[in-house]
Amino acid sequence: MTVVDRCRRCDLKFAAHDAADGPAVLIMLFFGFVVAGLLVVLEMKYAPPIWVHALIWPPFILGGALALMRPLKGMFIGIQFKYRSVEEDVPNDRF
Asked: Is there a domain that residue 90 lies in?
């Protein structure tokens, strides 16, 4: 999940851009809310034994979090670039 040093197409430097914990926080807040809601619905509708929950939820949570991490990290870095939160010389004719 590391960020490359430079863009392959335009040679823009990404070294100073850092998404920090922003994507992880959004995943915990929003995806966690969805998972908790689905868990409650499953429990109320079917009342499965605890081993079913232990079988279903860990892969679902891990897969969902990993699937969302890369796009959210890219979004955070894109927002940093758009609003120029990192001091970097970018020629105006390229962007």
From this structure: no
Residue 28 belongs to domain spanning:
22-82
In a domain, 87, yes or no: no
Residue partners of 17: CB distance under 8 A and separation at least 6? 3, 77, 80, 81, 86
pLDDT digits (tens, 9 = 90+) for 28-78: 999 999 999 999 999 999 999 999 999 999 999 999 999 999 999 989 888
CA–CA separation, 76 and 94 (whole Å) = 21
Would you say residue 11 lies in a domain? no
Domain count, the chain: 1
pTM of structure: 0.75
| Calpha distance 1→60 (Å, rounded) | 19
